[in-house]
Amino acid sequence: VRGPAGPGLSAPCLCRRERVRAMFYHAYEHYLESAFPYDELRPLTCDGQDTWGSFSLTLIDALDTLLILGNVSEFQRVVNVLQDGVDFDIDVNASVFETNIRVVGGLLSAHLLSRKAGLEVEAGWPCSGPLLRMAEEAARKLLPAFQTPTGMPYGTVNLLHGVNPGETPVTCTAGIGTFIVEFATLSHLTGDPVFEDVARKALKALWKNRSDIGLVGNHIDVVTAKWVAQDAGIGAGVDSYFEYLVKGAILLQDKELMSMFLEYNKAIKNYTKFDDWYLWVQMYKGTVSMPVFQSLEAYWPGLQSLIGDVDNAMRTFLNYYTVWKQFGGLPEFYNIPQGYTVDKREGYPLRPELIESAMYLYRATRDPTLLELGRDAVESIEKISKVDCGFATIKDLRDHRLDNRMESFFLAETIKYLYLLFDPDNFIHNDGSDFDVVVTPFGECVLSAGGYIFNTEAHPIDPAALHCCRKRKQEQWEVEDLMREFYSRKKSKKFTLKRAPDRGEGENAKDPEDASSEKAGEKRNSKKSSHSLLSCPSQSFNSKLAVLGQVFLDNT
Amino acid sequence: AAPRLRPRAALMARRPELLCGAAILLGCAFLVALKVTCSRAKDVTMPAKLPVNFFSTRSPVIDLFRGQLDYADQLRQDSEIVLYFFYAPWCGQSIAAREEIEHVASRLSDQVLFVAVNCWWNQGKCRKQKHFFYFPVIHLYHRSFGPIEYKGPMSAVYIEKFVRRVMTPLLYISSRSKLLDFLSNYEPGVVGFFEFNASPQPPGYLTFFTSALHSLKKDYLGTIRFGVVTDKRVAEEISLVHSGSVYLHRHANTSLIYPKDIMNFTAENICKWALENREMLIRWLRPHGGKSLLLNNELKKGPALLIFIPYNPLEEIHPLLDEITKVALEYHKCNKSQAAEPDLQHVGDSDSPAFDSSVTDAHAKFSETFPIAKSPCCNTVVLPQWHSISRTHNVCELCVNQTLGVKPNKVHVPHCNFLEIEAALDSFYLQEHTFFQVISNTIECSNFLSFYSPFSYYTACCRTVNRHFLSFISSEKTIFQTPKVAFSSHGKKDNTQFSIPHIEDRNCFIPDLNISSTNITGLSCRTNKTLNLYLLDSNLFWIYAERLGASRSTHLKEFAAIVDLKEEVHYVLDQNQSLVGPTL
């Protein structure tokens, strides 16, 4: 088994990891000092402001990063602060999408990690708990938005009064299709199916409204189901819809979601892919409308690695990396033929997407190039955007002028993925070699075995938890069998638990040479061929040598 | 929710005051730097920090951190050789390369001027005039010639080597032995002959000199070496009679003389001609780290032997490399008459008479007079394991030797007929007991007549090979684990056990060179599968070796593997075996 002693272990020197840790605390402490309880820190003026609501957003978003950095005591302190201080019964117009991914997602992951963080959990955990109740409360505030003729949600909702009269019915695609991970988790944990149902209904509505050539635009009228903006691509306005089809499929072992994604993937390859770049096209005709690369699109290689398409992922990643090298960050829009930024879209708000892809791909390939991107990101962010009170958004990548903002995703995602890139032994990378057994009212349950699914705000969800809170005879027996097997083997030797539903994230994109994963794959295939849609293809022979920038053309 | 509301309300009440107070207070504190307008703190922005020194002030590198390109250009007058290091202060690669440049500068500062220019700061001249897509960019100037961009690895030794090449692009060859040294190198050599007697500089010399510099622009690995001969007698060794003629040396093919009558004698043309006609016995692979199809393109040419050795370009002698060169030469050595023909027309009749002798001359240093007259066709056979417990393989080299003259048409068949080998194998089997009785480390050879043809006889050289000697790693592992006779055929293409032909290549390298050197000689010509030879510096590219099965924690970073992309197999040479000629 390719354990932590992978070929790159010597390469991701721990000094870089420690630099990332220092970056986190520089920003985090200044947020607490100068900005809390506002949503975000304003690093140039050293104060705070509310941006997406009024829920101390940066604190919620950074919570699980604290644990990933190993700071248990601060995690515990913040959980207590949040329990007392955050309230969702407020007259605030909030983005349904942002509230879901940052607040609901952040609270859910904190809830699921709270036992690991040494918090005293109540008897019903993980099926109950204060953070879970908070997440549920926040999510319920969003439900009124889903009351539309199509089932697709409005973009904005008032947390106290529901959808405002006169609210625009136009929502972006991602704002409709980015709920399944959080909402399905909520439904599984609380036992109330309403969340998963509305999320699925919205996904199906999008699927039904795709164009004849299989593409979706980036804004739609949720009342009439007419596409308002017909640019199709993988970036802004659409991005996390595709992401959640894949992650939802892995989390729920749902073949339907995966086959939807694979259909989209085909159309995307056919119409938008040129030379490993992905352009924007007209969703009905497939003609190129914008030859730009967007900073947000950089999540795509990471997503490809999750479905095992590592070769294509690396090729696209290397394209994106050249843009980073040109500017020291990724501009919101980059005109590919001109090789330069696009007017009014020159900013880089310290987004995580490229680093996120590097983290996934490094798990899959151990290619040192990916650590190099990490190194470049650390240098750039420190040299360009570090100010006395935190890290400032880069307003213009051409001259590195700074803006008075530090988005909450900087601590939630950018720092987290950087740290995970440089910390190969982090518990998040667990491959199932250790786990916790929890007794719930529904029986024994295996948790923290790895295969975490990150929501689009980088909040990790333990997929195993979804199977803890429902009484299902068959599943229960399966688990009990596994437990028996485990304890009987434990006496003789170390035993690695591998179970299909626990696989996800890093594991799914695992090194093809990994003998045990290959074996597991075979076993699965022979047992149940129906799982094939959800397991990764074997990697090509030449992928062995596809490191340090080398790419191979198809063998055909 | 009611109890929770109260602290919240208190909080809200606190906010306006906090906002205003903070803004005004901080506004004053940061007024100079931030241009804060208290009323609209939202629009606060801050220009990028002013550039500061990138190199320390004590460094031998002149650091123009405000991007003063005009001053950088002025500085060029001061030194014959100038190296420009264009960097961006935020760039990780620039920061990593900084140390390397400092190291090189500390060694060469008396001969080369090192100038670093911040080409990012948008107020600086450099940023305004140059448009780079990556950093750092290294440009070299030899007087007015330049820029020569350095695209090699960002490692001090490689940079220094390149700078030294720019300093002395032409090697002065003073004697016959120096000439032989120059030509025997595995990298292609171009020699110009110029008589320095009458005028201060013979005509064409400057052009030749420039073409050497020019080649560094095109061929950043610096594979083609340029030398100059001034002694008439030395020049005659390579049949250069007239001053101003240029010679491209090749080992396996005929060497060439620059066709002045066809192409104009310009620096670009000479360089282009050398690049087009050079012979690549062994190629260095140095992936630059960016997206590239280098391996894809090279490995798709056919099976490749990748040799990983630690390499210091600054060292004068590379014994290991010489050893590998020998092997490569032997591998590529073909029937000379066959090979000499195709390129002759390229050169023209007038200059050619002395060619063959010159080639032989160059080879004399290495060649140990190989008996290749009969061009036997050989195959390696791995015998079935007699004792399943023993950890040994019997490897036999089976050759079909046809008697000359009796069947003249057969002598010209370049490679083995499948049937012949099969027949040979059959008869070999009947004799096999002779070999199994002697299991030793020596090589046993015996000749025996074919049962089917009175005109040929077979030679079988067998030796016992320790099993760990051959560690095969491939997707087809099972083939090698079954103790079955594996025999290869060159003639038959539809061999179903596709991975087997390569076992032959491999095994040919295993027996002691003393005895089997004849087998490797000209192997590239006899077999219809050519094996391309590549070198990789294990200091930089060990990861590829690891990917092919090398251990990651070895102190001696030497490794060899044959990769066949098409067949999706690769074979590795055991790492415990030292990487020397005989093993190869």
From TrEMBL, chain A:
Pfam families: Glyco_hydro_47 (PF01532). One of its GO terms (biological process) is response to unfolded protein. Its main location: endoplasmic reticulum. It is an enzyme of class 3 (hydrolase). GO terms for molecular function: calcium ion binding; mannosyl-oligosaccharide 1,2-alpha-mannosidase activity. The active site is at residues 98, 239, 332, 353. It comes from the Eukaryota. Keywords: Calcium, Endoplasmic reticulum, Glycoprotein, Glycosidase, Hydrolase, Metal-binding, Unfolded protein response. It is found in: Endoplasmic reticulum. Residues 497-537 are annotated as: Disordered. InterPro entries: 6hp_glycosidase-like_sf, EDEM1/2/3, Glyco_hydro_47, Seven-hairpin_glycosidases. Ca(2+) binds at residue 456. Its EC number is 3.2.1.-. One of its GO terms (cellular component) is endoplasmic reticulum quality control compartment. Residues 499-524 have a biased composition (Basic and acidic residues). Its cofactor is Ca(2+). Transmembrane segments: none annotated. PANTHER family: ER DEGRADATION-ENHANCING ALPHA-MANNOSIDASE-LIKE PROTEIN 2 (PTHR45679). Belongs to the glycosyl hydrolase 47 family. Involved in the endoplasmic reticulum-associated degradation (ERAD) pathway that targets misfolded glycoproteins for degradation in an N-glycan-dependent manner. May initiate ERAD by promoting the first mannose trimming step of ERAD substrates, from Man9GlcNAc2 to Man8GlcNAc2. Seems to recognize and bind to exposed hydrophobic regions in target proteins. This is alpha-1,2-Mannosidase. It comes from Zosterops hypoxanthus. The lineage of its organism: Eukaryota, Metazoa, Chordata, Craniata, Vertebrata. The gene is Edem2.
Automatic annotation (TrEMBL), chain B:
This is TXD11 protein. It comes from Zosterops hypoxanthus. Residues 219-282 form the TXNDC11 thioredoxin-like domain. The gene is Txndc11. InterPro entries: Thioredoxin-like_sf, Thioredoxin_dom-contain_11, Thioredoxin_domain, TXNDC11_thioredoxin. SUPFAM superfamilies: Thioredoxin-like. The lineage of its organism: Eukaryota, Metazoa, Chordata, Craniata, Vertebrata. Pfam families: Thioredoxin, TXNDC11_2nd. Residues 70-164 form the Thioredoxin domain.
